[in-house]
Amino acid sequence: MDSVNRLIELLYDRLGQSVSLDEAASAAGGRGKLEKLWPLVAQRGHRVVFSPAGACLVLPTAMDARLIERDLDTRRVGRNVICFPQVDSTNDVAFDSASQAGADGLAVLAEWQRLGRGRLGRRWISPPGANVLLSVLLNDPSEALGHEALTIAAGLAVAEGIEDATNIPCRLKWPNDVLLEGRKVAGVLVELRRSRKGRCVVIGIGVNANAAPDSPDIQSPATCLAEHMGEPLDRTEIVRGLLRRLDGWVARVEAADLDALHTAWRDRCAMINQRIVVDSGGRQVTGRVLDISPLEGLILCDDHGHRQHLPAACSTVVGIRRGEIEGKPRPPQRREKR
C-alpha cells in the first residue's frame, strides 16, 4: 500500500505534467513493481494517460482519502477521511459511523449519491465523478454545537475554502447557499440525530466543482466552478481547503465564540436591507433583512413593523423584492391610456 500511495502522490504533485517512467519506477520500488501498481491506481478511481514523456493523472482526479489527509493538519474535522465510488447518502454513512471509535470529525466523500438530499426534503443532484459530495460527523454529547450556528459556519467555511483553492470569490445567501455571480455553486445541510454516544451532528456539503445540475427539479439558477475557471478543477484542494476552514469555525462555535463568525458571514452576504419573502414553518413572512445571527437565524422587520427571528432549520427564501429597500414597496406603475 505504501508504494501505491507514493506513486499516486508523485503523479498528483505533478498534475498537468508527465512523470517519467523512471521516476515512477523509483517511487514504486522498481520497474517490475511499477507494472503491478498501475491496476491498483485504477482501482482507487484514478485515470492515467501514457505518452512518450511518461504518465499523467487525468483531471478531475478521483476523491482519494490519502491525498486529502496528507499534511491536512486539522484539530478535529477531517482527521479521518473515507471515500466511496457511490453511496445512497454521505450523510447517512456518516451517521452510521457515529458509534465507532474515533469517528468524531470523520469526513465521508462519494463520487455519486443515489439518494442525495438537500434542505426541506429536496434532492441534491450531481452527476457521477464531477463534484464534491461531502459529509462531516461531529459527536456532540454536550450539545454545544447549535444547528443555527453550524449552518452559518459551514456555509462560510465552504465559501472561504473555495476561495482558498481557486481564488474565486463567493457570496452567501441565507441560510445555506454559496453563490457565484448570483448563482448557486454550493449548499449545506445540517442534520441532528441521537446515537449511543448521545447527540451527533452531520454537516452535508455539496459543491458544484465541474458540473452544474441540469434538472427541472432545481429551483434556483446554478453554476459550477469549472465554468468560471474555463477548465476542469481538481476537487482535492477544494475539499482540503473547506475542511481546514470548517475545522476552525467548528472550534469557535463549540467555544461560543460567535462574534467573528457573525462579522465574516455578514461581509459575504448581500441580503442586508433587501426586502424578501421567506417561507418559515409553513407561513410566509415579507420584510426587510436587518441581520443574520448565528444564534437567532434571519432577523427581519416585517411589513407590519414587527421584528421577526426566523430559524434556518424550517425557513427558506422564496422571493427577493429587488428595488425595494427600507421596507417600502415601489409605487405602482402608471398605466398608459389606450
In short:
With 338 residues, the chain is an alpha+beta fold.
Description:
With 338 residues, the protein is α+β, with helices and mostly antiparallel strands. The protein has three domains: 2-57, Orthogonal Bundle (Arc Repressor Mutant, subunit A); 65-267, 2-Layer Sandwich (BirA Bifunctional Protein, domain 2); 274-325, SH3 type barrels, CATH 2.30.30. It is 29% helix and 28% strand. The protein contains nine helices and 14 strands. The strands form three sheets. It has a seven-stranded mixed beta sheet, sandwiched between helices. Strands 13-12-11-10-14 form a five-stranded antiparallel beta sheet. β6 (171-173) and β7 form a beta hairpin. α2 packs across α3 (31-43) and α6 (147-166) packs antiparallel against α8. The longest helix is centred in the middle third of the chain and has 20 residues, at 147-166. The radius of gyration is 22 Å and the shape is elongated. The N and C termini lie far apart (81 Å).
List keywords for this structure.
5-stranded antiparallel β-sheet, BirA Bifunctional Protein, domain 2, 338 residues, elongated, 3 domains, Arc Repressor Mutant, subunit A
